[in-house]
Amino acid sequence: MLDPVLIANAVVSGLLLGCLYAIASMGLAVSFGMLDVVNIAHPAMMVLASCVIAALCAPTGFDPLLAALLIAPVFGLLGAGLYRLYHLYFERRGDEAMQGLAFFFGLMIVIEVSLVLVYGADQRWVETGYGGLSLGLGPVGLPLRMLLPALMSLACIAALLLWLRRSFTGRAVAAVAQDRDALRFLGADPIRIKTVAFGLSVALAAIAGGCLIVVQPVDAHSGHVFIGRVLAVVILAGLGSLPGTLVAALVFGVIENVTATLFGPAWSPAVAFSLLLAVLALRPQGMFGRAHA
Amino acid sequence: MSRPLRLNVGLAAAGVALILILRLIDNDYAWYTGYVILQYVLLAVAWNILAGYSGYVNFGTAAFFAAGAYTTILLTKALNLDLLVCVLAAGLVSGALGLGMGWLTLRLRGVYFSIATLSLAVVLQTLVVNWPYAGGSSGAYTMRPQGYAVFGNYSEFLFVLMLVLALGGIAVAAGIERSRLGLGLATIRDDERAAAAAGVPTLRLKLIATAISGGMMGMAGAPLPYYASYLNPEAAFSLTHTINAMAMTLIGGTQGWVGPVIGATLLSTLQQGATVTISSAGNLLIVGGVLILFVMLAPKGILGLIRAWRGRGDTA
Amino acid sequence: MNAVLDVRGLGKTFGGFTALNGIALTVAPGERLGLVGPNGSGKSTFVNCIAGDFPDHAGVVLFRNRPLAGLKPHERARLGLSRTFQLPRPFRSLTVLENVTVPLRFSVPPLPVADARARARACLERVGLQDKAHSHPHSLTQVDLRKLELARALAPEPALLIADEVMAGLSHSEVDQILDLLFALNGDGTAVIMIEHVMRAITAFSQRLAVFVAGRKIVEGDPQTVLATPEVEAAYLGT
């Protein structure tokens, strides 16, 4: 029969995992949800960050979460440049639908294969001082290797939400998501705003990469299963709803972790993608969002 | 001779010529190389029926292809059916898969269809990995017959089978381009709302296209277990099939069946040559890089470049 | 009742915003109805509801006595309900002639290729595009694009044509060309709903005029009387 302690543990670590999924999805919620740039290479960028962080931290003992904060601006700049290219070659030509999608797919392959060529196909991880430690809440354990990334994710998401609500640029990003022409009246250049926002989304991928490498070992293809997860979360949340993205990610983490506990981990990739298929078939406007079909 | 007839006679003649040339070379490696190139010709032509003709990007090539390969595994194991029957069954299975997939997601904006096809591969692969009868994660072996009917050896038979499938695929694609279906798909690609307002049953045409395209991919995968004698989920569902079909088509040009044929022939010949010198990862890196360059700099592919170059020649 | 279009209690909301509210409107066979109203008054939403783009609207729409509920846009088009789009939406990869064959090749039953091309050619002659039959839409001028849009809409000989701002941005003489075309089409028995901001065209064309303001039909009747009512002057012409 079902052991309640086992289930409680599965739910709690599912929530912690959900925080990781939230930070992994948040960048895509900005690029796909708000800017309508379908960056399917987002998970690959996250894994790229994980590998870079592993290369920096494994020999030096530097903390991966701090390292993530340090490389995030670099990723942000690269992302901004990438958006400029995307805009120049696809958005402006009206070729997003096919060529643009193919572009990001190609980018994903190139990132993955480059990782294989540079780092080999083996798993990479980082030893941290808190790797083996755990907080106990009665019979439920909170391993620090999951708790700390979860807290960092939540802090970054809170900062992102504040920025979108309070700052001028942040509000302009939100306005771009609603109506591109509205910005012209504000005297803001939509392309510049989208460049900033896309850069930010890639910076978030870097932070997610730092969290990921603390939670689990990573290999070049770790991004694949995340494609299903993050797309499911973003679409389930209703494109562009950031609080919705957080809730959907938590729900998702719990469902996936409980499934893995009950049926075995071999089934967990199918959970993500089956849920994604179900969402697309039944409720493409998501739980919280506007119709976008 | 009418144009369609001329095309079909031309295709048949090209096929016979290919067989004769390879008979002269007559070594297993030649038959194998030819098989792989033709397999990609078929995959690219099939992928383009959806992408080029109707504007919908399918990221699930590997899923349709693998569904075909596993149909062969299962039918051979359960009923010991002949490969030719398996090929037809694989076409039906993958066609039905396309139909179901399309029915679920083709009402939505195109990008959701693409995302859903991406998931299809992972869901199917997980199913196969967890299905011991189909070989599970460790894979399944296929016993290869010694020879087959009039063919010198089984490699030659597999090559001729794939040749017939590829040429048949081209004939189907060319037929679609000339047909009412092709006209309807073109209006969907150009402007789906205006198409519906002109009376085009958009959903039905997209479903037909997805089923035909998926079925052709399944047939391309059906002989794979015999080609390789051994099949595991990783090889069958490899993203390589997806990226190749897509890159070959976009590099060749999406306007008609000629583009994917050129792209597939060119790219897979290069790949077959390069496997000797470059690792498969390096190979994939080149395909990805070339794909990115082409979609950015030559969105109409090699055919587009040729046309632009000819156009310049005319005005000069 | 023998109306070609009979709309009762038509309503549509987007989120909390009411775009159309309790619209009732009938169009008799062969009639020319003008539909005016300020921007955002619900005219386009009205067209989209009738054409089947918003299946979740309130109220009933009867087309030649047949309820349209549950019918997709292409099914409505095949019944003889044609519409144009405010911004012309040609099929970019097809020639002008092929553009016009599309509704004929997808009618029920479909016309064979040769017949469809012959009919399309006749339509192009009618709108004056016969010389551009083999051009692609990107090489057409604005007025020619409008003509193509009209040719595609009238090719299947619809019972009702909804012409949504087909004259916006055209010059005086171009407006006259399009107007002649619509009169000729109407002479063959097609009822026309003209949605337009060009008042000269509306008053010349309409036998009856309906005015929408903020999602409601505020007045309907013969054009001179309607335009003279104070509400219309205040809500529409005053702005």
From TrEMBL, chain A:
Ranges annotated as spanning the membrane: 6-32, 44-62, 68-89, 101-121, 141-164, 196-218, 230-255, 262-282
Keywords in alphabetical order: Amino-acid transport, Cell membrane, Membrane, Transmembrane, Transmembrane helix, Transport
Family named by the database record: Belongs to the binding-protein-dependent transport system permease family. LivHM subfamily.
Subcellular location: Cell membrane
Record-linked PANTHER family: AMINO ACID ABC TRANSPORTER PERMEASE PROTEIN (PTHR11795:SF445), BRANCHED-CHAIN AMINO ACID TRANSPORT SYSTEM PERMEASE PROTEIN LIVH (PTHR11795)
Membrane topology: Multi-pass membrane protein
InterPro entries (UniProt xref): ABC_transp_permease, BCAA_transport_permease
Protein name: Branched-chain amino acid ABC transporter permease
Transmembrane as UniProt keyword: yes
TrEMBL record, chain B:
Keyword Transmembrane (UniProt): yes
Subcellular location: Cell membrane
Transmembrane residue ranges: 7-25, 31-50, 57-75, 81-104, 111-134, 154-176, 284-306
Native species: Azospirillum oleiclasticum
Source organism phylogeny: Bacteria, Pseudomonadati, Pseudomonadota, Alphaproteobacteria, Rhodospirillales
Protein's name according to its UniProt entry: Branched-chain amino acid ABC transporter permease
Membrane topology of the entry: Multi-pass membrane protein
Main location: membrane
Keyword list, A-Z: Cell membrane, Membrane, Transmembrane, Transmembrane helix
A Pfam family annotated for this UniProt entry: BPD_transp_2
Superkingdom, natural source: Bacteria
TrEMBL record, chain C:
SUPFAM superfamilies linked to this entry: P-loop containing nucleoside triphosphate hydrolases
MF term (GO), any: ATP binding
Pfam families: ABC_tran (PF00005)
Record keywords: ATP-binding, Nucleotide-binding, Transport
Annotated transmembrane regions: none
ABC transporter domain span: 5-239
Highest taxon above the source species: Bacteria
Protein name: ABC transporter ATP-binding protein
Organism from which the protein derives: Azospirillum oleiclasticum
